[in-house]
Design brief:
CATH architecture of the largest domain: 3-Layer(aba) Sandwich
Low-confidence stretches: none
CATH topology of the largest domain: Aspartate Aminotransferase, domain 2
Largest sheet: 8 strands, mixed
Strand content: 5-15%
CATH class of the largest domain: Alpha Beta
Structural class: alpha/beta
Number of strands: 13
Shape: globular
Strand order of the largest sheet: 1-9-8-5-4-2-3-12
Length: 376
């Protein structure tokens, strides 16, 4: 069976994990965590990056740092993972879902402004498949209405919009280093912070409400409990695993892009004949080959194609069930306007195997099997 995903592994990870163990510093914010922070800040231009135990926790930290309160509203797409919504639901916010664009599967920036009310506090764009939302328009809307922008960039490490790193454009950016992502620490994430004045508050929140980070920098003689907080620090062993991959980020990125491009070229003829649609990458976007998907004619055809691939030992999968149709989505939110695109396009989309080290032999088998399905 050709798997859908294989967690990235370079072979140097175990040595760095053992180094963390020998350092006798395996808790949070050890040497490897600091190296990851520095890499993320230099790569993105963000004033501060903080590793977290997950992207979910990075999103929760963003909601806390924005002081989201019960009754506040947050605008987001329905085509996303539940963590995007959960972070704000936990603060008592009302979710306001808007439709997506059919080309990128990202939030439709032209639908956002009409969804804003006097209760709106934030806009949460999700960069699907590592392809940027229309951030110029979104940030301009946010500026005019005095709203925060929280980028769910879980899939977007190494992606850019007009030369800017995704995650570093809005007020906060949230990355994922889950095993399904381009770079992994098993479970993990990161929060990027744009406003330097929010850094200390974020450090306190992340350190169980204490000012321990300031203490460790030698800025105070002792640390104490100063505010509410939780423990969002990953182990330095996890950071060591991630650091091995960040050092080879370009190698991993180029490998994935090569696989993505082989798929893209191979399915051109099927698209020309009207059988499928390939991903669309706007000119201003630099993507990271997080996933390669095709869109079938409809749900019935997608189901048949998924079954055909499985029969031929290839694991392909569909993606999000729109949140507004889920029980929790109905309870915690509402869909503003008409669902013209979200459900229709979600029903058509299927993702093909994509991971670092995917062999040419396996890529060719996937390509040949998809083509056989449409020519049988």
């Amino acid at each position: 069976m050709i798997p859908f995903n294989v967690p990235p592994f370079l072979g140097t990870e175990p040595d760095l994990i053992m180094q963390a163990v020998k350092n006798q510093k395996i808790c949070g914010d050890g040497p490897f965590t600091k190296q990851c922070h520095q890499w993320l800040e230099e790569k993105t231009g963000s004033p501060k990056a903080l590793l977290t135990t997950s992207c979910t926790h990075a999103l929760e930290m963003a909601a806390l740092l924005l002081h989201i309160q019960p009754g506040d509203e947050v605008i987001l797409p329905s085509f996303t993972f539940c963590s995007t919504a959960d972070a704000f639901v936990l603060r008592g916010a009302k979710l306001v879902f808007v439709d997506i664009r059919p080309d990128t599967m990202n939030i439709d920036e032209t639908k956002i402004e009409d969804a804003i009310t006097d209760k709106t506090k934030a806009i949460v764009p999700v960069h699907y498949a590592g392809v940027a939302c229309e951030m110029d328009t979104i940030t301009e809307i946010a500026r005019r209405h005095n709203l925060a922008v929280v980028e769910d960039a879980a899939q977007a490490v190494m992606s850019e919009y007009k030369g800017q790193a995704l995650g570093a454009i809005g007020d906060y950016g949230c990355y994922s280093f889950h095993e399904t992502k381009n770079y992994s620490m098993g479970e993990g994430g990161a929060l990027l912070i744009k406003d330097p004045e929010k850094i200390e508050e974020a450090e306190i929140l992340r350190e169980k409400g204490t000012n321990r980070s300031v203490f460790l920098r030698g800025q105070i003689d002792k640390y104490t409990w100063v505010d509410h907080g939780s423990s969002y620090l990953p182990s330095d062993m996890n950071a060591a695993y991630l650091w091995a991959q960040l050092q080879e980020a370009e190698k991993i990125n180029n490998d994935r892009l090569a696989s993505w491009n082989k798929y893209y070229v191979a399915f051109a003829e099927l698209e020309e004949k009207g059988y499928v649609q390939r991903p669309i990458i706007p000119d201003e976007c630099k993507h990271n080959a997080h996933m390669f998907y095709l869109k079938a004619k409809d749900l019935e055809e997608r189901t048949a194609l998924l079954s055909f691939l499985k029969e031929n030992d290839i694991l392909a999968v569909f993606h999000y069930i729109p949140l507004h149709s889920a029980p929790a989505g109905k309870r915690f939110g509402r869909f503003h306007g008409t669902d013209e695109v979200t459900t229709r396009e979600s029903d058509r989309l299927l993702r093909l195997p994509m991971y670092y080290g995917l062999s040419d032999e396996d890529i060719n088998k996937v390509i040949d099997t998809v083509i056989r399905f449409y020519h049988k």
